[in-house]
Amino acid sequence: MDELIPLSNSTLGQLAIEHPRYDRKALTPGIVHVGVGNFHRAHQAWYLHRLMQAGRARDWAIVGAGVRPYDTAMREKLLAQDCLTTLIELDPEGTSAEVIGSMIDYLPVEAGNGPLIRAMANPAIRIVALTVTESGYYVDPVSKGFDANHPDIQHDAAHPDVPRTVFGAMVAAYRMRRAAGHDPFTGLSCDNLQGNGAILRQAVVSLARLSDPDLSDWIEANASFPNSMVDCIAPATGPKELALSRDFGVVDAAPVTHEAFRQWVIEDNFCTGRPDWDLVGATFSDDVHAYEKMKIRILNAGHQVLANAGEILGLETIAECMAHPLVSAMFRKVQATEIAQTVAAVPGTTPLSYVDLIERRFANPKIVDTTRRVAFDGSARHTGFVLPIVRDQLAAGRSVEGLALVEALWARMCEGTREDGSAIEPNDPFWTDLTAVARDARERPSAWLEQSRFYGELQQVQPFATAFERWLRLIWEEGCDTAMKDYLAVESDSAAGTG
C-alpha cells in the first residue's frame, strides 16, 4: 500500500478493504459491553456488525465500558478512531482484513463507575454484556459459591452507590431502573466459564442481597442471564499486529488479529429482546451446556495441557508447542484417552472430531498466541477447566495419568524457572504463593496438592495423588521430555470414547 489512511468515520470511503456500508451516525445504542478487549471485538462485535451490514440491528449498537484504570488507554485509542476496529483474519491459506463499526462510544472510566451506572440505567440499553476473564466473577475456587468476603465485594455491599466492581455497577443500575419503572436489562456473560450465565446471576443477585434483599429478589425474578459458549482465538496486539494493519493501508492504534473460526452458542433467554445473531452464524440452543462443555474441556483445558510444558521448555507460542513432537503427542493422548471421555457429542460433531479441529487451530503458525498468555492465571484455569475433568474421570474409574502429568507440569512451571535456567515472570494473581509452594514441592510433591483452595479433596484421592507425585518427582529428576516420553510409552487403560 502506498497510502496509509488513519481510521475514522470520515475516511471509511477511502479504504480498500471491507468496511461499514451502513450510516454509523444513524445507529443507536442497545448494548453496553464491559471489557472491550481483542476477543470481544473479534467475536461479539463482529456478529453485530454483520447484522448491521445486512440492514438489521441498527438500534443495538455497542457502548464500550471498563471498570479498571487500565481500560482508559483502550478508551482513548478507540475514541480517537471513532470506535472503529480493523479485524485481520490469519488463515494458513491467506490473510484478509475488514473494518467493523458496531461500537459507537466508550464510556469514561471513573472511580465509583458513575458513567457506567447511568448508561446501564438508560432503558434503551437492553443487554449488558461482559468479558472480564474467568477469574473475575468472585467465585470460590473449591465451593464454586459467591465469595462474599472479597474486599471488593465488601466495599460494594457497604457503598452500593459508588461500587468498584462491574457487578456492583449492575446492581446500582438495576436499582435505578426499578425505581423509574423500567424493565431490567439482560446480563450476558461472554467469558469462558461453564454455566457463565448462572455464574453471572450468582454474582449479581448475591451482591445485591448484601445491601438490598428486595432488589435482589426483583433482579432474580425479572432479569435474564442466558448461558453462552464463545470461541475465537484473538491474540494480544503488539508491534507485529500494528504493522499488519498498515499492510492493508490502515493506521489503526488497536487492530485485532484472529483465526478463521468463530462459534457462539447462546441460550435464547433475553428479558428485553435481542439482535438476530443467528442470521449471521450464531446458534441459539436450549442445550448450551453440551457445547460449552465440549469447548471448555477440549479447547480451554487443552490450552493448559500445552502451555505449562511449553513454558518449561521455552516454547514461545502455542503453534510452537504443537510443532514439538513430544508436547503435541502428549496433547493428543491426554485428549483422546482422558478429556474426550468426559464429553458428549453435539449436533454436527463428535468429541474426537472436535479434538482434530482444535489441533488444526492450535497448530496455525500465523496465530501468534503466546504460551505466556495461555498459561496466565493458571490458578483459575486449572481449577475451572482441568480439575473438573479429573473428578469426572475418577468418579467413572477411568485413567487420570495424563491429567496428573498436566498438573505436575503446572507445579513445575510455577517454580519460576525454565529448564534452560531462564526466569518465568510472575503470571498468576497468586504467583508468590504458588512459587513458594512449588519450591517446597520439589522435595515434597504432596505440598502442591495440599493447596486446598485449588484441589480440595483431590489431595487425598487415589490414584490421582499418587500419579501426580510420581510425575513431579520424575520431572525434577530427569526433565520434562523424559516425563512426557514415559507417559507416551504407557498403554492407556481406557479407549477413547464419548462418555
Automatic annotation (TrEMBL):
- One Gene Ontology term of the molecular function aspect: oxidoreductase activity, acting on the CH-OH group of donors, NAD or NADP as acceptor
Protein name as catalogued: Mannitol dehydrogenase
Question: Could you tell me the keywords of this UniProt record?
Answer: Oxidoreductase
| Domain spans labelled Mannitol dehydrogenase C-terminal | 287-471
Output the superkingdom of the source species: Bacteria
One matching Pfam family is Mannitol_dh
Q: Which residues form the Mannitol dehydrogenase N-terminal domain?
A: 30-278
Q: Name the InterPro entries for this protein.
A: 6-PGluconate_DH-like_C_sf, 6PGD_dom2, Mannitol_DH, Mannitol_DH/Oxidoreductase, Mannitol_DH_C, Mannitol_DH_N, NAD(P)-bd_dom_sf
Instruction: Give the organism's phylogenetic lineage.
Output: Bacteria, Pseudomonadati, Pseudomonadota, Alphaproteobacteria, Rhodobacterales
